[in-house]
């Protein structure tokens, strides 16, 4: 199965925004002799990072990332959290400013299961990629692939590569043919030419 | 706590005969340092941790002096067998800083030249001077490199200074509730504390323990070490007696507490030391030599950093710790930062708190 780390070359310096328990950085250190710094807000997840010996900064991404210099990391990663931010547009601009290259993944709200659920039941969809009830979801700004790509265009961000997947699944023929309809998650390699 | 879990400790002394040049340009004609150690130094001497104390601290950081001793060292909540700084694993060294009043050379010591107490003649000591003297203690103990240098408040500033002045002599710096330099407000508080001491007539007459002045300084300090919430929680508006008496005697519990703290402190602490420590705080500004560029100042540091702040600390607010963290990020150093939920204000660093302790345990355990 394709993973974010497959896009990261050896000996890189990686900033993982919303790094969770630090698994990505942990595997990058072990498998790619890279160095990593995690940003996380959740107390428990920060403890998990420290248990693994991973450097982690407690910081709320919604309060800005001005403390990071431009192009100071080879890669900036944000895995399925941009939709949970208060200002995804600002965050995206910051991500491509800090990273020489950036990797952002999003859950696809226009996935067929979501569309069918909303159409037939008249209720907010729940899926593998979007498992929360409307009242307890951390997601504030859900979008489709099309929406995200339009935002990239507006911000003059180049999409170098896109990978589609299902949660725990490979890219399928249907996804390739109708990405906005069939993929559950999309991964993007982004760069901003200055 | 069972008997064998009680850490029984004994202070030791170490002496430097040579002249010791200070940052101010003045010189000490040798000095002595009182210190304590807890735990055992391992065979490759790789488990030594230096603990640096804050403004009113001393070398007695943990344990008891006897089985009947009621009061443990000032950081006993975090240092001891099975605690965050685990004395079963680490060899902990804690000293009383130069200029102190608990056994190390300070204003209360006898000046060899005049055969009298130094008192106000004792030279001003800076954080860099402390670190330099601590490094002599490291050499005396034949420790090539500290596993960690750790401290809260003014102690955290010493840990930061270590990473700048002796970058290859520590593997990990733990900087808690500290700041890269004092804020204007902080200097202002220190000045009120100093003026209350200096303006006490007893102090002018040569009393090193002026009850009024030193007590007032301590009262003010105490208020800034606590948060409004923790004060409310601890004392509320409780009265000592049943009702108010429309007078100026102690009525509220908080007044009684402050007065008690003040008189206790004034008896045991040297006023000259207090003045000196507040000056060391005010002068601390390692980035000054690089026009305020802390990242540049830290460029030679090679240790890992753990920076911790507490949300209710307004004396050394989280933003101050964040300044250290941001400079370390800019300087591309290995750094972790936690901002801990705690209502106890600046004093939080002295107290047990699961997240705080876990962070220290894991940071010390992680590979260098």
Chain-wise SSE layout:
The complex is a heterodimer of chains A (194) and B (368).
Chain A: E1 13-17, H1 23-32, E2 35-40, H2 43-51, E3 56-58, E4 73-79, H3 88-98, E5 99-107, H4 112-121, H5 145-154, E6 158-165, H6 173-177, H7 179-182, E7 185-191
Parallel strand pairs in A: 1-2, 1-4, 2-3, 4-5
Antiparallel strand pairs in A: 5-7, 6-7
Chain B: E1 12-21, E2 27-38, E3 48-52, E4 79-80, E5 85-86, E6 91-95, E7 110-111, E8 116-117, H1 127-140, E9 146-152, H2 154-165, E10 170-176, H3 184-198, H4 201-204, H5 211-225, H6 228-235, H7 253-268, H8 271-283, H9 294-297, E11 304-310, H10 318-330, E12 335-340, H11 354-365
Parallel strand pairs in B: 3-6, 3-9, 4-5, 9-10, 10-11, 11-12
Antiparallel strand pairs in B: 1-2, 2-6, 7-8
Helix pairs in contact in B: 1-2, 3-5, 3-8, 5-7
Sheet-strand content of chain B, in percent, reads 15-25%
Under the CATH scheme, which architecture of the largest domain in chain B would be assigned?
3-Layer(aba) Sandwich
The CATH class name of the largest domain in chain B reads Alpha Beta
CATH homology superfamily name of the largest domain in chain B: Alpha/Beta hydrolase fold, catalytic domain
Question: How many domains make up the coordinates of chain B?
Answer: 2
Quantity of strands of chain B, as a count: 12
Q: Over the alpha carbons, how many angstroms does the gyration radius of chain A reach?
A: 17 Å
What's the CATH superfamily of chain A, by name? Vaccinia Virus protein VP39
* Biggest chain-to-chain interface with counts: A-B, 18 and 22 residues
Helix content of chain A: 25-40%
Which sequence of SSEs, written as H and E, runs from N to C of chain A?
EHEHEEHEHHEHHE
